[in-house]
Amino acid sequence: MTDWEAQGTPASPFGPDGADWSSPEDLLSALAATLEQGGVAATHAVVPLDEEDAAIGWLRMSDPGERATAAIDLRLRIERAEGSWSVVEVEERRHCRLEPVAGSCRDPDAPPPKETSEPVSSDEPAGAGGVYLALGDSVTFGIGVPRPAENGFVARVADALSTAVPPISETRTFAVPGETAAGFRDRRLDDVIAAIRELGPRVELVTVGLGANEVLRVRREEPCVDDPSGDPCQALVEAAIGQAAGALDAILDGVLDALATHGSRARVLVLAYYNPDLEPLATATIVGSDGGVACDPAEAVPGLDDRIACVAEAGGARLVDLHAAFLGRELKLTRIGEGDVHPNAAGYQAIADAVLEQYLLP
Predict the structure, then answer these.
(1) How far apart are CA 162 and CA 155, in angstroms?
(2) Among candidates 237, 220, 242, 342, which has minimal Cα distance to 284?
(3) Fewer CB within 10 A of the end CB, N or C, for the chain?
């Protein structure tokens, strides 16, 4: 067992320069989900402090499985500033959960063991099958269900297309809970373009689900807290929708240009959002004054989904209308009744079905 060591401030999206978090619990849940997506078992808890704007978070990481012996505990100091919680200090401890077996749970400072056998080669040729690139926020990530890497819509789509022609044999997910379209453009688009450059013609499908967090953040600003239907709040919402659409347009341009440059004829699908709040004002924010999703220049007040539809249309991408897919079933397909805007398992299946329908259309 080692002594605690201060590790500094983590990088985005969990540091002060990354996504906004409304509570320490939300932040830790997203961090645990990120680890689980990478195949690490993670449990977490929050311990309140006497300080109003601070808390201690505990995160235990270990290899999955009942015989996992090594574990890493992180003690996180979480503080609130300007309405958002972030990790400001991390301390780490490595230890054994069970009796070490066959050299497991070795001293973290010991040199790695020597290889005793040659790597096993696969009969499958390198680069076989197509690749699915999933770009987005917490919905693309899979927040709202256990093991999002297995139970989110991305995994469901990939599994359904594993026997398609051509088959999807690899998935790369570029998704961060809480990410805005502008944040993705500035921090993650280069990674997507680099992946397209590497994979070239193997890229068969790209999904893009971004833009809602610009609007959700505005709802926490003072004018919208004081009077959600007032003109100051509505001006902020319209500005946020415009910013989201502009950033999404830049993302789509970058992706489409990279695909064309590197020989991919991938189908690109852009996700319009379901309604995360059943209040009439929220409905208007999503679908605008006409109550539907379409790129209609004549619509008096377009909503977020209408602007997303225009971005997709301008780029030649297909729109996945999740508002229509969820309409009338929001309480059954999401966790709204529990105060969580994310889909449940049935909701992620509905998203997967809508994505597959658009992908498989001629």
Answers:
(1) 10
(2) 237
(3) C
Pick from 144, 137, 215, 205: nearest CA to 174: 137
The model's pLDDT over 226-242, given as tens digits with 9 standing for 90+, comes to 998 899 999 999 999 99
The sign one gets for the Cα dihedral 154, 159, 162, 165 is: negative
Tokens linked to 201: 């013609």
State yes or no: pLDDT of 275 exceeds 70: yes
Buried b (16+ CB within 10 A) or exposed e, 119-153: eeeeeeeeeebbbbbbbbbbbbbbbbbeebbebbb
The rounded distance, in Å, linking the Cα atoms of 218 and 233 is: 8
pLDDT tens digits for range 122-132: 344 445 799 99
**DSSP element (H, E) containing 218:** helix 212-218
Nearest to 268 by CA among 277, 276, 259: 259
Q: Phi first, then psi: give them for residue 96, nearest 5 degrees.
A: -100, 130
